[in-house]
Automatic annotation (TrEMBL):
Organism: Vineibacter terrae
Keyword ATP-binding listed: yes
Enzyme class: transferase
GO CC annotations on file: cytoplasm
Protein name (database record): Cytidylate kinase
Keyword annotations of the record: ATP-binding, Cytoplasm, Kinase, Nucleotide-binding, Transferase
Pfam family, one: Cytidylate_kin
Gene: cmk
Organism classification: Bacteria, Pseudomonadati, Pseudomonadota, Alphaproteobacteria, Hyphomicrobiales
């Protein structure tokens, strides 16, 4: 069996990272860490406390003191939290304070797993630069906004197409233009544009890529 030990998966919002990461984790029996949830948890706690996400000192402290319960906040996926997450994610000290935890997860996977898949923005570039497999999934802003729109509708919300696209563009811009760990494909990453691919097709192509590149490892 060919099984990678560390898969680094990056890409913009609604590129399909979470969907792909969960399938890869199940296929290769890996632990999965959605690193965006860490930034979301920091952003959400700051909003809940009525503080300003741009306050770098406070955001860094919040990241350093993040508690497991913060990762269970029901508002973690709200639009306000998404924007706050990308604001705190541009603060270098916030990133630094979340780094050790992510590396530790990759080094010592929970639940007796032999490997990990981490998804986010800087996994292949900063968190796990030695990953066996680096993937970068992307899609046009229109395709990604349409996916988010469909998700919101399916959840019973009444989204406005233009607003979904604008909010996504503002987060894309912040995540790509920040000085620290901007969204970028890692050197050697397999880059896949998923605009015209469904989740099954993406999974098949990525598995074919992994099989073509990984060699069986000695345990
Ligand atoms: O984690 P990320 O924000 O990158 O995306 P996601 O939450 O995994 O996927 C966003 C939405 O796109 C979900 O509703 C998926 O079912 C859908 N989708 C996908 O994941 N992959 C495709 N190739 C096409 C659609
Ligand atoms: O699901 P979606 O792709 O929309 O967002 P996410 O992966 O949950 O990430 C939320 C925000 O956290 C992003 O917009 C980034 O600003 C930040 N983030 C980051 O900077 N680095 C990561 N490794 C993961 C997320």
């Amino acid at each position: 069996l060919v099984r990678p030990q560390v898969i680094a998966l990056d890409g913009p919002s609604a590129a399909g990272k979470g969907t792909l990461a969960r399938r890869l984790a199940s296929h290769y029996d890996l632990a999965h860490l959605d690193t965006g949830s860490l930034y979301r948890a920091v952003g959400r706690r700051i909003l809940r406390e009525g503080r300003d996400p741009k306050d770098a000192t406070y955001a860094a402290e919040t990241a350093a003191n993040l508690q497991p319960v913060d990762l269970k906040d029901p508002e973690l996926r709200s639009e306000a939290t998404s924007q706050a997450a990308s604001i705190v994610a541009a603060i270098p000290a916030v990133r630094a304070n979340l780094l050790a935890w992510q590396r530790e997860f990759a080094k010592a996977p929970p639940d007796g797993k032999q490997g990990v898949v981490l998804d986010g923005r800087d996994i292949g570039t900063v968190i796990c630069p030695d990953a066996d497999v680096k993937l970068f999934v992307t899609a046009s802003p229109e395709a990604r906004a349409e996916r988010r729109f469909q998700e919101l509708q399916a959840a019973g919300a009444n989204p406005i197409r233009r607003a979904v696209l604008d909010e996504m563009a503002s987060r894309d811009r912040r995540d790509s233009e920040r000085a620290t760990a901007p969204l970028l494909p890692a050197d050697g990453a397999f880059v896949l544009d998923t605009s015209d691919l469904d989740a099954d097709a993406v999974f098949d192509r990525v598995v074919a890529f992994i099989e073509s590149k990984t060699r069986p490892r000695r345990a």
